[in-house]
Write a structure and sequence with these properties.
With about 200 residues, the protein is of the alpha+beta class. The protein has a single domain, classed as Immunoglobulin-like (Sandwich). The chain has 3 helices and 9 strands; from the N terminus they run αβαβββββββαβ. The strands form 2 sheets. The protein has a 5-stranded antiparallel β-sheet with strand order 1-2-8-4-5. β6 and β7 form a beta hairpin. The chain is elongated. About 15% of the residues have low confidence.
């Protein structure tokens, strides 16, 4: 075999190996289809007793989804994730309202909570590191306390959130898994002052 044929054979071999590596990596990433949603958030309807404070809950969109996602470092998750925001407004005229915020995990979720990171306002949090909390509504098997804050009479607060699968996800622990959640806000009257008072 002459030198030219060997050079051509090497070039073709290297090209085939590069194409195979790209195909395998592409297929691996395509298998990480993890969907989660924050939709179906609600006010305190049905749970509020007549003596409980009145609040209003609104959101910028009904859910966040990451179709065809794969595990990423925090910097990429923050950059690529859609932003979800919700606003809680007190409808009380005379008393402060303490708002407890929970994230409830859907009972059909199969992705481990330690693989889901969120940017909540300015803090990066792995879901499983939050304190376990109540309530757990029908269709959800666990909850974590995400936040707690105090609203002055007729006060309002906006919270921002992004979510992604963190880089601890692998083919073994994140492949073809699903994860769903919802935000639940529970108000109560308080004599505590709001921040800044």
């Amino acid at each position: 075999m002459n030198e030219r044929n060997r050079s051509t054979l090497k070039t073709v071999s290297v090209s085939i190996v590069v194409v195979l590596i790209i195909a395998v990596v592409g297929i691996s990433f395509a298998y990480f289809t993890i969907n989660y949603e924050i939709g179906d958030t609600y006010n305190v309807g049905g749970k509020a007793k007549s003596s409980e404070p009145q609040i209003e809950f609104s959101e910028n969109k009904s859910e966040i989804g990451l179709p065809d996602t794969y595990p990423v470092p925090n910097e990429v998750g923050i950059e690529k994730s859609d932003e979800y925001s919700y606003t809680v407004t007190s409808k009380e005229n005379a008393r402060n309202v303490k708002v407890n915020v929970y994230i409830q995990i859907d009972q059909e979720s199969t992705l481990s909570d330690d693989l889901v990171n969120i940017l909540y306002n300015d803090s990066i949090i792995t879901i499983s590191t939050l304190l376990p909390g109540d309530p757990v509504d029908y269709g959800f098997n666990r909850a974590y306390k995400l936040d707690s804050f105090i609203l002055e009479p007729n006060g309002s607060k906006i919270n921002y959130m992004k979510m992604w699968v963190n880089e601890n996800g692998t083919v073994e622990n994140a492949l073809n898994k699903g994860w769903g959640s919802k935000i639940s806000v529970i108000p109560e009257f308080t004599d505590e002052p709001a921040s800044g008072e």
